[in-house]
Amino acid sequence: MGYWKDIVVGGWSLIEGMKVTGRALFKPVVTVQYPRKRLEMSPAYRGHIELKIFPETGTHGCIACGTCQRVCPSGVIKVQGVKTHARSGKVATHYVIDYTRCSLCGLCVESCPTQTLKFSTEYELAGESRWDGVMDLVERMEDSRS
Amino acid sequence: MMEAAATSGAYWLRLIVGLVIVLIFSQLNALFLVWLERKVAGHIQVRLGPMEVGPHGLLQTIVDGIKLVGKELITPARADRKLFVIAPVLVFMPVLVAFLVLPFGPKLIIRDMNVGLLLIFAFSTFSVLAILVGGWASNNKYALLGAIRSVAQAVAYEIPLLLSVMSVVLMVNSFRFSELVMAQQRVWFVFLQPVAALIYFICATAETNRAPFDIPEAESELVAGFHTEYSGMRFGLFFLAEYTNMFIVCAVATSLFFGGWHGPFGFSFKIPGVVWFLAKTYVLLYVLMWFRWTFPRVRFDQLMNFSWKVLIPLSMLNLVITALVLKLI
Prior knowledge:
Chain A is an alpha+beta fold. Chain A has helices at about 1-25, 65-70, 105-110, 135-145, and strands at about 50, 75-85, 90-100, 115-120, 135. Chain A folds into 2 domains: about 1-30; about 50-145, Alpha-Beta Plaits (2-Layer Sandwich), CATH 3.30.70.3270. Chain A is built from 4 helices and 5 strands; from the N terminus they run αβαββαββα. Chain A starts with a helix and ends with a helix. In chain A, about 15% of the residues are buried. Chain B has one domain (about 75-329). In chain B, α2 runs parallel beside α12, α4 (about 80-100) packs antiparallel against α5 (about 115-135) and α9 (about 195-205) runs antiparallel to α11 (about 230-255). The longest helix of chain B is centred in the first third of the chain and has 36 residues, at about 10-45. Chain B is globular, with a radius of gyration of 20 Å. Chain B starts with a helix and ends with a helix. The chains are: A alpha+beta, B mainly alpha. The interface of A and B includes residues 14, 17, 18, 24 and 27 of A.
């Protein structure tokens, strides 16, 4: 009896398999033809860091405290700020990161006291030289605003 | 009759025109099938398949073919040169012979021989010889293993293949393709001989070395099997022969079990026979591709067990029952 049962059960399992692939044949494809079409990145995507723009001030909230610079395990952040006058707080004028050595740990984002850092959704990061990974986030913010 | 026909010019013209059409058709068919295979593979895996060259990648295989022709023909060191060169030719020759007797339409048979069916199966064994020669001459362990497996597989699967075909021949009392097809004007033999049709199709998959029976060229174990050492157009010929072989086994299945040039149940819907024939053949070819992208490759012992323990007894039983029924009716 086992012999015939094996043939019938085995044959049926093959048909089941063909049903699965037969259905897949008519499913819409998941391929996105990249250079012609692009995916919308999810907000949870962790690209390099970026300065947030706060709507109430219209600019970033970086006070150039240097916490991120100290907490960064790879030492890729360099922040510079100025005081416009003696009593005012510092405002960052340069925020340079070297993305090529960044390990995307996110400690800078977590430690930022003014929460002005976020992950960008930029994913086309190929460059021709190692300096293409070095970018000034303040400059980048200004560029994105214009 | 034969003597008179053989000397006439029309006879030779018919042969030459037939040969040229067959050569062109087998190339175009292979190009189309490779493209179709990649498309089917893509869509079964929810991908797109080739898209870049031509509309929906239709010209991709032509471009690949040109690349293949331009490649260097490498003969490995200490290979058996003569056999190595001959093998790809040997694999393609029987494929062309099979086209001689395939009944594309009531009038579209190059030579309607009285041994047509036997001719196809006799010559299809040649491709196994070619695979063995190619694998042996390559001086490569993977090629040799692939060739050995191929022979063992061919021996095991040719028996149920012929036995299942024999039960159809028994019903028609002829090996002539035109008579085999004419007998199916009302009812296709797939309805009278479903077991034989199934066994034939399984064995045909094995005969053409297609997945799930593609162990002669199992790429995960044997690199590429018998054609590991072949490059350029020599590999191209093996490739071409594989796809043309697929066409032939499906065309034979069409004419033996699916009514050849007839429409279903005697209705032709005013569609010419060739169209019916090709449509049915390409549907069967699609099923072969469907198999390949659904089933995992069988292990060698499973392959042998399946043939010797299941297919051969079943086809034998089918043949005996057919003979009994025909005797009693």
